[in-house]
Amino acid sequence: MTFYKQIQAAATAGKKLFAVLVDPDKCAGNSLPHFAELACTTRPDFIFIGGSLTAESTDKAIAIIKQHCDIPVILFPGSAAQFSPVADAILYLSLISGRNADFLIGQHVLSAPFIRHSGIETISTGYMLIESASVTAVEYMSNTRPIPRDKPDIAVATAIAGELLGNRLIYLEAGSGASLPIPAEVISAVKKNISVPLIVGGGLRSESDIRNALGAGADIIVVGNMLEKQPEMMLRFSKIIHEF
Ligand code: 1GP
């Protein structure tokens, strides 16, 4: 079964999924093997890998993860340069909240021949940046404006457009390390208006942040920053998500 079919089946069954995010640049020293071992025992559903700006090799980071852990590794690339054929799948992200052609189609053209040649599963994803309290790395690096956090109607129209264009997932992103996560009103409004699974991430730090996102309708929860600082929270978050 493809990863997308697994995601779709889980969303249909109301079974929530957990993805931990690894930024290859923030895995200096021994932290990545330890993180991967922890993931191996905690069993999140996916390891997403990528970042807005990375200098480290994605191939190398995936190789380290795969030495220590059998959880599927899914690319969550900040640019075409982060493509790696050794990942298990790729979220083929179109930044549909923005109006920068490079992130709507440009990076895709650059990476498409490599992706096709690799044969890895490709999951088209409408990626939507929602305003947080301050400028995030993804906002700056993508040179796009996020959707205002108090305008759920714009988020809904954007998500519907993303689905109509053929995206098979919608990802509501506050930005890695965002001071404020996606408002529950935006999550629930989008969820009510789409039929593809919904990913929510960015600035989720506490159990209540995660419960709020799940309660509002997130199908997949992504946590990065918080677990870099406190990896031991992975087990707690995993329990909350899987028992929700
Ligand atoms: C960022 O949605 C992810 O792209 C995760 O964000 O690092 O803030 O958890 P955090």
Structural descriptors:
8-stranded parallel beta barrel, 44% helix, TIM Barrel, binds SN-glycerol-1-phosphate, 244 residues, 8 strands, alpha/beta
Sheet of most strands: 8 strands, parallel, barrel
Q: Can you list the strand order of the major beta sheet?
A: 1-2-3-4-5-6-7-8
Radius of gyration: 16 Å
CATH architecture label name: Alpha-Beta Barrel
Give the N-to-C terminal Cα separation. Answer: 24 Å
Low-confidence stretches: none
Percent of residues in helical segments?
40-55%
Structural class: alpha/beta
- CATH-defined fold name: TIM Barrel
Report the β-strand fraction as a percent range: 15-25%
Describe this structure in words.
The protein is built from ten helices and eight strands. It has 244 residues and is an alpha/beta fold. An eight-stranded parallel beta barrel has the order 1-2-3-4-5-6-7-8, surrounded by seven helices. It is globular. The two termini are 24 Å apart. The relative contact order is 0.15. The chain binds SN-glycerol-1-phosphate.
Give the topology, please:
Blueprint: H1 3-13, E1 17-22, H2 31-42, E2 46-49, H3 58-68, E3 73-75, E4 89-95, H4 101-118, E5 121-129, H5 137-142, H6 152-164, E6 169-173, H7 184-193, E7 198-201, H8 207-216, E8 220-223, H9 225-229, H10 233-243
Parallel strand pairs: 1-2, 1-8, 2-3, 3-4, 4-5, 5-6, 6-7, 7-8
The structure holds SN-glycerol-1-phosphate.
What would a concise description of this structure say?
This protein has helices at 3-13, 31-42, 58-68, 101-118, 137-142, 152-164, 184-193, 207-216, 225-229, 233-243, and strands at residues 17-22, 46-49, 73-75, 89-95, 121-129, 169-173, 198-201, 220-223. The chain has 244 residues and is an alpha/beta fold. It is globular.
